[in-house]
Amino acid sequence: MSHSGHQTEAHRQKILVTGWRKAGKSSCIQTIFQHLPVKDVPYIGITQRIEKIDYDTIVPLQIWDTPSNFDVDQLTDTPLGAFSTMVFVIDMQQDEFYHDAVRQATSAIMRGYLANPSMNFSVFIHKAESLSEDYRLENYSEIQRAVTEELEDLSYPSFQKYAPNLDLGDVNTCTSIFNHLQAEIKYEMTSVHDVSLRNAWSRVIQDVMEMLPAVEALLLNFTETSSIDNSYLFDLASGVVLATDNRHRNDATMEQITEYLERFLQIREIYKPLVAKNTSKGGADSPAPKAANDEPWWENEDAEAPWMTQTSRLLPNCTLALWQFTPQLVLVGDLHTDTWQARRGMIEYNLTFLRQGVRRILMEV
Ligand SMILES: Nc1nc2c(ncn2[C@@H]2O[C@H](COP(=O)(O)OP(=O)(O)OP(=O)(O)O)[C@@H](O)[C@H]2O)c(=O)[nH]1
Ligand SMILES: [Mg+2]
């Protein structure tokens, strides 16, 4: 099977991030995908032109950051229909602008839908931590309501020139577009200061993962046969969750595990130099094998490379275990300490099958 060209520009899932000026578009991208420390967010500066960020994870992504005066008509060489997702960022504390922002959002979403009816839409209602809880929830609902109303009131016929195959003068057509968008637009309350932003990105990426059900089924099988409570497949560099076994999904555990991973990744920096000294090739913490000529990573992967692994006993009866799968993916599971002590060998044996299964899925897509 040949995979050449797999990660070329055309194969990247394109995500268009847009929104009102200073809404936080660049912050949402850079803190997650470009390692920007949150303390540096105020110094990002105005985005002057479109910036494309290539990011390799379970599916290769290309995230487009846009300047504040961006309009979808400014896309020249890449048609709007080539994007699989549009993320619209709205600053929830800017009361005076958010009606303009909502108007801009609905029009961009409508254009996106007409260019690609299977486009995914997410609205990040951002800077949530800056408001008190009551006010935050009120604004969050208010913005959702405003988007719905605006979509309802939109002059559909004025979009006719973007929809040669549809009759936007027909009430039924317009109603079905409205119903579709109403059901499909996902709202996320986000802030760079907590895990909400990572969780929002997690849902955005899961929406473009065609292999998600297959990966979830593998995780479920692994957790069941290994008596693990929950398992999460993370993108290592960003800490975004790509898949879970979905058994006892709950936000509190998820938050704990994400925090754990984040802390762990911080201490990991400490032993990076040690590992680099001891191994000439593929250490536990060596940088991801660079895809030469854009070849996928597995073509030049060192099968013997010792992947990173770590376990922590958090509470007397709670253990977290982490295993790296590929340069980009890491599995984190939480389980009873007794189970870990009694069944470690079996769990690690099951893990080899899970790892192979995930790799097989990656090679097939
Ligand atoms: N309180 C708070 N402020 C934020 C958050 N995210 C971004 N900001 C602030 O919002 C301002 C704008 O952030 P940017 O990421 O540059 O926004 P942008 O939409 O890319 O701005 P332009 O490129 O100029 O259109 C900065 O001063 C950030 O410090 C957040 O989660 N909470
Ligand atoms: Mg910007």
Describe the structure.
There is one protein chain. The protein is of the alpha/beta class. The protein folds into two domains: 9-206, P-loop containing nucleotide triphosphate hydrolases (Rossmann fold); 212-364, Beta-Lactamase, CATH 3.30.450. It is 40% helix and 19% strand. The chain has eight helices and eleven strands. It has helices at 25-33, 98-115, 133-153, 171-184, 196-207, 212-226, 251-278, 337-364, and strands spanning 13-19, 51-55, 61-65, 83-91, 120-126, 186-189, 230-235, 241-244, 309-315, 318-324, 329-335. The strands form two sheets. The protein has a six-stranded mixed β-sheet with strand order 2-3-1-4-5-6, with helices on both faces. It has a five-stranded antiparallel β-sheet with strand order 8-7-11-10-9. Helix 2 (98-115) crosses helix 3 and helix 6 (212-226) runs antiparallel to helix 8 (337-364). It is globular, with a radius of gyration of 22 Å. The relative contact order is 0.11. Residues 1-6 and 277-292 have low confidence and may be disordered. Residues 25-26, 47, 65 line the site of magnesium ion. Component of the GSE complex. Keywords: GTP-binding, Nucleotide-binding. GTPase involved in activation of the TORC1 signaling pathway, which promotes growth and represses autophagy in nutrient-rich conditions.
